[in-house]
Design goal:
253 residues, mainly alpha, 0% strand
Length: 253
C-alpha cells in the first residue's frame, strides 16, 4: 500500500506533459502559423536549455565531484554530456533518412527527437519522484509539482512540431503521451528492479547525458528551424518566456 501514493505522484507528474499538447487545438490564423511555430520552437528550446543549465548539469556535476574529485568528476561529466551530443546527431541522421515526406521532415524530426530526449529526461525523473515520495511523501509531492510545471512546456516541444508536420492532432497527443508515460514507467522499474541499485550518482550520469541531448537538440535543431521562419522577434520572445518560466519554477518549488 505504501507504493500507491508515490506511483500516483509520478504518474500525474508524467502525464502533465499531455497538457502541453492541447495547444494543437488552438485555431491559429493561416498568416500567423509561422509566427506561432517559431514561438513554440524557441519556447521549447528556452525550456530545455534552462532546465539543463539550471538543474540537470549543476546538480549532477556537484554530485559527481563529491563522489570522486574535481578532475575525475569533471572528466566523467564531460564524457556523459558528449555521449548525449553524439547520440543526438546519430538519431537525427537516422530519423532524417527514414522520413519520406521532405516538406515536413524538419518539424517531424524535431518532434521525434524532442520526444526521445524528454522520455530519457522523464525516466530518471520518475525514479527520483517515486523514491522521494516513498521515503517522504511531502518531499515527493513537492518534487512532483515542480516536475509537473516544467513537463507542461516540454509537451509543447513534442506536440507542436509533430502536429504541423503531420496535420494530425492524434499523432501529436500520442507522442506526447508516450513521453509522459516514461515517468511512471521509471517509477515502476525503480520499485520492481532497481531500488537496491539506484543511487544519486547513477541518476547524475543519466541526467548529464540527457542534458547533452537536450542542449544539442535545442541548438542544432530547434533554434535552426525556428530561425528559418524569419520571425526573429518571436524567436527571442519564445526563448525568454521559456527561460523565465523555468527560473520561476525553481523559485516556487
Amino acid at each position: 500500500m505504501k507504493i500507491v501514493y508515490p506511483l500516483l505522484i509520478s504518474t500525474i507528474a508524467g502525464l502533465s506533459t499531455i497538457l502541453g499538447s492541447f495547444l494543437v487545438f488552438l485555431h491559429i490564423k493561416k498568416n500567423n502559423i509561422q509566427s506561432f511555430i517559431a514561438f513554440c520552437l524557441s519556447f521549447s528550446l528556452g525550456v530545455m536549455i534552462s532546465v539543463s543549465i539550471t538543474d540537470l548539469i549543476p546538480n549532477s556535476y556537484f554530485t559527481i565531484i563529491k563522489r570522486f574529485n574535481f578532475l575525475i568528476g569533471t572528466i566523467i561529466a564531460i564524457i556523459c554530456f558528449l555521449i548525449g551530443y553524439y547520440l543526438t546527431n546519430k538519431l537525427n541522421k537516422s530519423i532524417e533518412k527514414n522520413k519520406k515526406k521532405k516538406d515536413s521532415s524538419n518539424l517531424y524530426r524535431i518532434g521525434i527527437l524532442s520526444m526521445l530526449a524528454l522520455m530519457l529526461h522523464n525516466f530518471p525523473e520518475g525514479i527520483a519522484t517515486f523514491m522521494s515520495a516513498y521515503e517522504d511523501l511531502n518531499l515527493g509531492i513537492t518534487l512532483g509539482i515542480a516536475i509537473m510545471m516544467h513537463n507542461i512546456p516540454e509537451g509543447i516541444a513534442i506536440a507542436i512540431p509533430i502536429y504541423y508536420a503531420t496535420n494530425s492532432k492524434a499523432k501529436a497527443i500520442k507522442h506526447t503521451l508516450i513521453s509522459g508515460l516514461s515517468e511512471p514507467l521509471g517509477a515502476i522499474i525503480a520499485y520492481l528492479f532497481l531500488s537496491k541499485y539506484i543511487s544519486m550518482i547513477t541518476i547524475s550520469y543519466v541526467l548529464l547525458f540527457v542534458a547533452g541531448i537536450m542542449i544539442t537538440l535545442s541548438i542544432n535543431e530547434l533554434l535552426k528551424e525556428a530561425l528559418s521562419y524569419k520571425k526573429d522577434k518571436m524567436v527571442l520572445l519564445g526563448i525568454l518566456v521559456g527561460a523565465i518560466l523555468i527560473i520561476i519554477n525553481h523559485f516556487i518549488s
